[in-house]
Amino acid sequence: MDLLEDYRRATFFFESGDPLGAARLLEPIVEAEPHNTAVRLLLARAYFNSAQLNGAEAQLRVLVEHDPSDHYAHHVLGRTLERAGRFREALPHLRLASAMKTQTDYQEALRRVETWLGKNSAA
Prior knowledge:
InterPro entries: TPR-like_helical_dom_sf. 79% of the residues lie in helices and 0% in strands. It is mainly α and 123 residues long.
């Protein structure tokens, strides 16, 4: 198995709109190189883009545990939890990401979840 070539192919699949194909190529790479954060992040994004939210969450939690200052991993974890309807769990990750880095999409995701929780505070 040529891991670098498989990673390049997976990146091509992902960028071409085939997150399932990318995930299939990335899973064995993550197994072979569990500390490779770039591969794990791409796998998490492939899972997210193919609505495999449990898989995305698992990969992102590993990334956040490994590097709590990774604002992007916090953002994508928050978005994954938001997409799964787990707004209260998403909120701290979205707040952290937004506090660590000022980006429009971070702020928009945070506002969406805060608004949803504000409108559904009895939930």
